[in-house]
Design brief:
InterPro entries: Plipid/glycerol_acylTrfase. It is a single chain. The chain is an alpha/beta fold and 249 residues long. 46% of the residues lie in helices and 16% in strands. The longest helix is centred in the N-terminal third of the chain and has 30 residues. Strands 1, 2, 3, 4, 5, 6, 7 and 8 form an 8-stranded mixed beta sheet that branches.
Length: 249
């Protein structure tokens, strides 16, 4: 059954992207940048319809009251492509999000072209310190425009129960701009495994942590605070993935 669900969704997602992504690409230059985001939302919501109704994967959000009303930096766990869509529903209804992503993604047909039209924060991961400066330059501008900035501090998708080094990009942006930071944990990888065709139905728990102001904090302190909260929360929502958490329970 999961194979049928996954096949139907993949077919639907490809057709929907071919039909809707060009509208995003065209809208920016012709109608102005905000229209690229509006059409991008239509594209995303159409894809999410397929996720919920064909794959049977639905979200359950905890701590929605922790999300600030003003633009901020969101630092989240990254387990699959699912959260790149659904995390955007965690911000206020009239707000838009941008992601910090690698430049190579902008070259992917349809999806990448749409991301480029929406002015995502793209960086050259081989640029070292210059990559961090790229994040600050682009991120400051997006935050001033009222966009929430989402970054995955581990830098890549990580399987449930695993952890990678938390990189400084999000903390570097927040401390240099002086804005609030929101940590988010979730267990999307339980149902949408990374680099896997087969998905399975279920309810993904998204847990939004308390926001804190990064003004005056060091990058190391911001990163450590985010890591400590996310990893502790992962043990709470997915204890079976962490032997130490299961034993404590």
């Amino acid at each position: 059954m999961n194979a049928i669900r996954s096949t139907l969704f993949m077919t639907y997602a490809i057709i929907w992207s071919v039909l809707s992504a060009p509208l995003v690409v065209i809208a920016g230059p012709l109608l102005g940048g905000v229209w690229a985001y509006r059409f991008g939302r239509v594209w995303r919501l159409g894809t999410q319809w397929g996720v919920e109704n064909l794959l049977g994967i639905r979200p359950q959000v905890i701590g929605r009251e922790n999300m600030p009303d003003e633009a901020c930096v969101i630092m989240a766990k990254h387990q699959s492509a699912w959260e790149t869509m659904t995390l955007q529903d965690c911000v206020p209804d009239d707000a838009f999000c941008v992601f910090v992503l690698k430049q190579e993604l902008l070259k992917v047909p349809f999806v990448g072209w749409g991301l480029a039209a929406m002015k995502m924060i793209s960086i050259d991961r081989n640029a070292g310190k210059n990559a961090l400066d790229q994040v600050v330059t682009q991120g400051r501008e997006r935050l001033k425009q009222g966009y929430y900035v989402i970054i995955f501090p581990e830098g890549t998708r990580v399987a449930p129960g695993e952890k990678r080094r938390y990189k400084p990009g999000g903390a570097y942006l927040a401390t240099h701009v002086g804005c609030k930071v929101v940590p988010i944990a979730h267990n999307a990888g339980e149902f949408w495994p990374r680099q896997a065709f087969l998905k399975k139905p279920g309810t993904v728990t998204i847990s939004i942590g308390p926001a804190f102001d990064a003004t005056g904090m060091s990058e190391m302190d911001v990163n450590q605070r985010v890591e400590d909260w996310i990893e502790a929360e992962m043990r709470r929502i997915s204890p079976h993935r962490y032997p130490d958490a299961a034993q404590a329970a």
